[in-house]
Amino acid sequence: MRQRRRLCYGRAMSLLRRLGLTATAPAPRNRLTAAVRERLSRLPPGRAEFLAAFAGLLVRVAFADQEVSARERTRLREVIAAHAGLGPRDSGMLADIVVAQATALTGIDYAALTAAFNDLATEEEKRGLVDCLYAVATADDAVSLVEDDEIRKVAKALLLSHAQFIAIRSRYKEQLDVIRALRRGRGDE
To answer: What CATH number does residue 14 fall under?
Structure first.
């Protein structure tokens, strides 16, 4: 058990360094990075890692089409505020830093984020994350095929069953582009 905690802590520190959120990370390039690091430094390491992984995976879906729209940014802030236990200012800063990191040339190591989230989250939190991923994807009123595929990959990496994934996905069926295309093809719309 102790070895697993050390491994989780090591992943946490590595993940936070990649996002520029620890005191041992290189000097911040801008005030936003410094401000987010300062905000998250007050949290226990496990909680800060959880939030970084949660926000990073949200941006994975928002950036699946290689851009993050204004509506997606707004929805990211809302979802982070609602589910992270942070105030609006901190949630906004966390959303801004993960969007900046995802859209930068260096990007985000989503495999490391997923592994960290998988280690830290309960099954209920994993299902909640998948629901939040769909909430972010619907910010532009539709879930594109690429967004749906990214969410499916995250759910699979989080070891959720296909039935669990489908149960969550079915709540968003009216916004799925694949369903809309089928209906248009049949003349239902």
So the answer is: 1.10.3680.10
DSSP assignment string, 97-145:
HHHHHHHSSS---HHHHHHHHHHH--HHHHHHHHHHHHHHHGGGSSB-H
Residue 143 φ/ψ, nearest 5 degrees: -105, 110
> What is the C-alpha separation between 147 and 47, in angstroms, rounded?
27
User: Within 10 A of 26 (CB to CB), how many other CB atoms are there?
Assistant: 8
Distance of CA 68 to the CA centre of its chain: 13
Please name the residues in contact with 138: beta carbons below 8 A apart, sequence gap of 6 or more: 75, 172, 175
Q: pTM score, two decimals?
A: 0.77
With CA atoms as reference, report the closest residue to 101 among 36, 18, 14: 18
CA separation for the pair 125, 130 (Å, rounded): 9
Of 76, 120, 100, 123, the C-alpha closest to 20 is 100
The number of domains in the chain is 1
Centre a 10 Å sphere on the Cβ of residue 89 and count the other Cβ atoms it contains.
12
pLDDT tops 50 at residue 129: yes
Share of the chain above pLDDT 70, in %: 76
Amino acid at 139: A
Task: Give dist(CA 182, CA 29) in Å, integer.
Answer: 47
Range of the domain at 92: 2-186
